Amino acid sequence: MFKMAVVEIPIGPQHPALHEPIMLRVKAEGEEVVEVSVNTGYNHRGVEKLMEKNSWIRGMYLAGRVCGICNAVHTQTYVQGVEKLMGVEPPPRANYIRTVVMELERIHSHMLISAVVAEIVGFDTLFMLIMRDRERVMYLKDLVTGSRVHADIHIVGGVKRDIDEIRRGKILDELKVIEERLKYYRRVFEEDYTLAKRLTEVGRIKKADALSHCVVGPTLRASGVGSDVRFDDPYAAYSEIPFNVVVRDEGDSWARMMVRLEEALVSVDIVRYALEHLPQGPAVPKAFPRAAKVGEVISRVEAPRGELIYHIVSTGGGNPYRVKIRTPSFLNVVNTEFTYLGHRLADVPVIFASYDPCISCTERVLVIDERRGLRRYLSLRELARWGAT
């Protein structure tokens, strides 16, 4: 009996699904995928070590550069942890403004991956339309924070910029247009034949598998588990703002995209509610501590991709002893190798993109050279030469 050969096909590290380096070593028997291993390690930035060597204030800016797409939630996670260590409580108005910025970031992040998935399945027109309307959200982020990409609005004890009545009105008006466009794109993903054929029953994760493999965020909620840090462990202003946790039961790539589009609409409602109920009072602190007490704290938020955790340790003084970051993509990318099995090669980029992977925020490397009994950290220049001396 004829047996088809198993061929290994590298997908990456320059990836067809997104512009970040990661290698999927795919073994296929004909067109059927029989084995996949995820290989990471192409980004070497050492962000955590940089935080240990810099002040608490500089750490805010480092946290905001862990990920370019969800930088505000990274800064939120870091700052709220530092505030606990310093015994600082931000005013209500600042918490509402932080929530507005984070939800605007969630909207543009979900729109971005929706556009990328459309491009991967060959729907280039949909990709361009979504990216065009995403610019409206980037404009609003710029209006609030002063930057369309890196927000840098968080500061210990509050925010750097307040929202006046003119900006508030502009945001509320623009949200009406964004909401209508999101409803349209949700309808396209529901009804379009091409998207349905490429996404439904592809990369399905059952509820039990989602729990046992510890996936998080929209990937988890698309498999029927209603877990959301904003609801389970509220932070910023989420305890005061009513919203629904979006859950679907299908568990496939289509469900993951639908969860994101529906969550983007929920985010529109959250931003609208926050602006309409913006508390009076100060938002920008006049001063804040420069040193933290001895202790440690676990800080977590719901990033666009799922639960984001910062473990911050302080021995007192002007800089942290240790900062450990666990990003949602670390779980969603590494723990989902089983979802590719039995599918065709052409489905691999689709499944991979449906997890909305962020490689730059997942990989933070500290390399130690222990040769000849010496323990030393490698410099970036030495690391670029693979530590050769």
Task: Describe this structure in a few short sentences.
With 389 residues, the chain is α+β, with helices and mostly antiparallel strands. The chain contains 15 helices and ten strands.
Q: Based on the structure given, which CATH architecture is correct?
A: Orthogonal Bundle
What's the CATH C level?
A: Mainly Alpha
Main sheet characteristics = 3 strands, antiparallel
At CATH level 3, the topology is Cytochrome-c3 Hydrogenase, chain B
* Count of individual helical segments: 15
Largest sheet, spatial ordering of strands:
1-2-3
Look at the helices and sheets and give the structural class.
Answer: alpha+beta
Please report which band the strand proportion falls in: under 5%, 5-15%, 15-25%, 25-35%, 35-45% or over 45%.
5-15%
Distance between the termini: 55 Å
Let me know the average pLDDT: 91
Q: What's the CATH H-level homologous superfamily?
A: Cytochrome-c3 Hydrogenase, chain B
> What general outline do the C-alpha atoms trace?
globular
> What radius of gyration results from the CA coordinates?
22 Å
Residue share in helices?
40-55%
Poorly predicted parts: none
Instruction: List SSEs in N-to-C order.
Output: EEEHHHHHEEHHHHHHEEEHHHEEH
Overall structural domain count = 1
Q: How many strands in all? A: 10
List the SSEs and their pairings.
Layout: E1 6-11, E2 23-29, E3 32-39, H1 47-53, H2 56-63, H3 71-86, H4 92-120, H5 124-145, E4 154-155, E5 158-159, H6 165-191, H7 193-199, H8 207-212, H9 218-221, H10 229-232, H11 253-276, E6 292-303, E7 306-317, E8 322-326, H12 328-334, H13 348-354, H14 359-362, E9 368-369, E10 376-377, H15 380-384
Antiparallel strand pairs: 1-2, 2-3, 4-5, 6-7, 7-8, 9-10
